[in-house]
Amino acid sequence: MESTIQDIFNKPKTLLEEIASVEINDAGSLEQFRIRFLGTKNILKPLFGEIRNVPNERKKEYGQLLNEVKQAAEAKFNDLQSTFQQKEGEKADDIDVTAPGIPMPLGARHPINLVRNKIIEIFNKLGFTVTYDREIEDDWHNFTALNMPEDHTARDMQDTFFIQTNPDVVLRTHTSSVQVRVMESQEPPIRILSPGRVYRNETISARAHCFFHQVEGLYIDKDVSFGDLKQTLFFFAQEMFGPDTQIKLRPSYFPFTEPSAEVDVSCFICNSKGCNVCKYTGWVEILGCGMVDPAVLENCGIDSNVYSGYAFGMGVERIAMLKYQINDIRLLSENDIRFLSQFKGA
Ligand code: PHE
User: Fold this and answer.
1) Which residues contact ligand 1 via a Cβ below 6 A?
2) Ligand 1 centroid vs 289 CA: distance in angstroms?
3) Given 93, 119, 148, which residue is the final one in a domain?
4) Treating both helix axes as pointing N-terminal to C-terminal, what angle do 56-94 and 27-38 enclose, rounded to 10 degrees?
5) Which residue has the least CA distance to atom 3 on ligand 1?
6) How many Å separate Cα 327 from the centre of its chain?
7) 190-226 confidence digits (pLDDT tens)
8) Is the pTM of the predicted complex or chain greater than 0.85?
9) pLDDT at residue 87 above 70?
10) 308 and 292 in contact (C-beta within 8 Å)?
């Protein structure tokens, strides 16, 4: 019996020691302390219940002991609460509202998009609108309608990716396929740009990739002449590379245009004095073009006796590489942040 009474008296004494020695360093541990000693289910409650097991002559003593514990806990809590509250207050005062914010790193536009957008913007001024279409094409829209029937040697110019099981399905080798689709479905006048990704089975090197981007253009109306084409491309070159830019047209061959030409611009890097970009010729090639072959118009249901038109096509990578003097085409598809971040603000 005596040892049980001893136990009952020992409990509040241990708690007193705990209250005196417990380390409270932050608001969180203070809250734990409050819950343990002063909360609705605090540790003292069952001890008050024990009073009925204490002999009458010691009840007063026991009661006083419990009160002592409670007061010690309250005192410690009040004391520390004000310290932590003060600390919170001090923290609030510490906030410097004039301090600059944490900088948000801004991304950069991809050089391919920069150049593509610029090309579109320039031709928008001349009334060209943009049309997108599929990258997986059929033989007709990529080749046959464009004057390249099955056995035509010109197909070899465009190292095509075919689907093994179905030779009718190709990854488009140019976005001229989009122009065919527009001619088939719209009445002239037609004035469109077809930007997009194209695929060719080329060995990847610093100068060639198995996919790249084009912007092609098509204008069909009554009385469209080669002179219109030349003037349009001259305007484009000056807007793209600067007001002093000159253009030169060299005769060329494409199955879907007649006559055809390749267009050089005067080297904007060295002002045509000669540098390694223009290989000391003063000129750099930027696009292919020509008058749409009447047979192509007929293939697409357009009366070639009434309408004529011109088309042109350029590689976006090529222009980006010239404009930003990028010497390896692979940089444009590797997504290396060190490369891309150089185009911030461009
Ligand atoms: N489709 C041609 C190519 O991909 C480019 C081109 C378009 C040439 C229109 C002339 C006219 O090489």
Assistant:
1) 174, 176, 216, 254, 257, 288-290, 311-313
2) 6
3) 93
4) 160
5) 174
6) 23
7) 999 999 999 999 999 998 999 999 999 999 999 999 9
8) no
9) no
10) yes
The reply to whether 208 and 159 lie within a common domain is yes
In a domain? residue 6: yes
The residue whose CA has the least distance to atom 6 of ligand 1 is 313
Number of structural domains, the chain? 2
Look at residues 208, 199, 198, 214 and name the one whose alpha carbon lies nearest to residue 116: 214
Of 216, 262, 297, 314, best ligand 1 pocket probe by most atoms within 8 Å of the beta carbon: 216
Is 322 part of any domain? yes
Q: How far apart are CA 231 and CA 115, in angstroms?
A: 21
Which positions ≥6 away from 9 have C-beta within 8 Å? 62, 65
Instruction: Provide the domain limits for residue 53.
Output: 2-93
For tokens 């060299």, name the residue. Answer: 250
* Confidence category of residue 82, pLDDT binned at 50, 70, 90: confident
Could you tell me if 315 and 213 are in contact, meaning their C-beta atoms sit under 8 angstroms apart?
yes
